[in-house]
């Protein structure tokens, strides 16, 4: 069976069929997520925190992402797999092309994800011109958490919201095929999702996005410390990890997740 394609994900947006996304870092979870009906797997640099025990995503390397992406690919036969480009691995277009090529050729990713708006549009153009599918990432940018001053909701003020909308449009015009929107008001998430032709995947961005993504460990209530407000412990609703993942997929598909308490 062939893997889910970008064309299929675009068709899901048009049909208003919600896209269920979760992070994955190994073959066993990849297999379980596929069995549960997840559509897309994200090999996130969040592995720095939930796998490596780092304080942020910044220390994660390209080699780390390649290693985990290859493991995820081995556990899944049909899911669309996105790999994060780590901190400073796309500081310029030339560097981005080299590292993205490695993530696809060595790791097996079908798409790479970059954080940032207008400042990375030239890089996005260069990548997509070479056949490398790109997912943008706006709102709260974990790789820029030190500059942002922490994990803070973005786009609350009118000027900041307008800037995010402009960034989203510029990424699409540069060739991005998907967008992750993190920690923004639900009303802003709805506006951006409606304005773009590409799928918009929310994480703390409201229920009107085309799909939802969570860190799988957050979704299972396994993350040390306080769980993000926009998440939900689906494992607490059942005694089975497999059933918890299925509950997440069902909640995303039906629109039950996120609810009003899980958005800003």
From TrEMBL:
What the entry lists under CDD domains is as follows: KPHMT-like
Q: Where does Mg(2+) bind?
A: 45, 84, 115
Superkingdom, according to UniProt?
Bacteria
Q: Could you mention a single GO BP entry for this protein?
A: pantothenate biosynthetic process
* Gene3D superfamilies assigned: Phosphoenolpyruvate-binding domains
Q: What is its EC number?
A: 2.1.2.11
Q: Identify the cofactor(s).
A: Mg(2+)
This protein's pathway: Cofactor biosynthesis; (R)-pantothenate biosynthesis; (R)-pantoate from 3-methyl-2-oxobutanoate: step 1/2
Binding-site residues for 3-methyl-2-oxobutanoate, renumbered to this chain:
45-46, 84, 113
* Catalytic residue positions: 182
Check the record and name the InterPro entries matching this protein: Pantoate_hydroxy_MeTrfase, Pyrv/PenolPyrv_kinase-like_dom, Pyrv_kinase-like_dom_sf
An annotated GO cellular component: cytoplasm
Query: Is Cytoplasm among this UniProt entry's keywords?
Result: yes
Q: Which family does it belong to?
A: Belongs to the PanB family.
State whether it acts alone or in a complex, and with which partners, per the record: Homodecamer; pentamer of dimers.
- What is the recorded name of this protein? 3-methyl-2-oxobutanoate hydroxymethyltransferase
């Amino acid at each position: 069976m062939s893997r889910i394609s970008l064309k299929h994900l675009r068709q899901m947006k048009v049909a208003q069929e919600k896209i269920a996304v979760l992070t994955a870092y190994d073959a066993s979870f990849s297999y379980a997520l596929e069995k549960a009906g997840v559509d897309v797997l994200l090999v996130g640099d969040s592995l720095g925190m939930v796998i490596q025990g780092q304080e942020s995503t910044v220390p994660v390397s390209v080699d780390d992402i390649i290693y985990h992406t290859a493991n995820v690919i081995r556990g899944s036969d049909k899911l669309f797999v996105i790999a994060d480009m780590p901190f400073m691995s796309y500081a310029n277009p030339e560097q981005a092309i080299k590292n993205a090529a490695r993530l696809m050729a060595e790791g097996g990713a079908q798409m790479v994800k970059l954080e940032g708006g207008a400042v990375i549009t030239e890089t996005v153009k260069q990548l997509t011109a070479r056949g490398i599918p790109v997912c943008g990432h706006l709102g709260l940018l974990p790789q820029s958490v030190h500059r942002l001053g922490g994990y803070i909701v973005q786009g609350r003020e009118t000027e900041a919201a307008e800037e995010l909308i402009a960034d989203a449009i510029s990424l699409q015009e540069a060739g991005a095929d998907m967008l992750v929107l993190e920690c923004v008001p639900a009303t802003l998430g709805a506006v951006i999702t409606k304005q773009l032709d590409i799928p918009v995947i929310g994480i703390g961005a409201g229920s009107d996005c085309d799909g939802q993504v969570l860190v799988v460990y957050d979704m299972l209530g396994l993350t040390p410390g306080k769980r993000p407000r926009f998440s939900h412990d689906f494992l607490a609703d059942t005694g089975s990890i497999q059933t918890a993942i299925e509950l997440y997929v069902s909640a995303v598909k039906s629109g039950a997740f996120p609810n009003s308490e899980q958005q800003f």
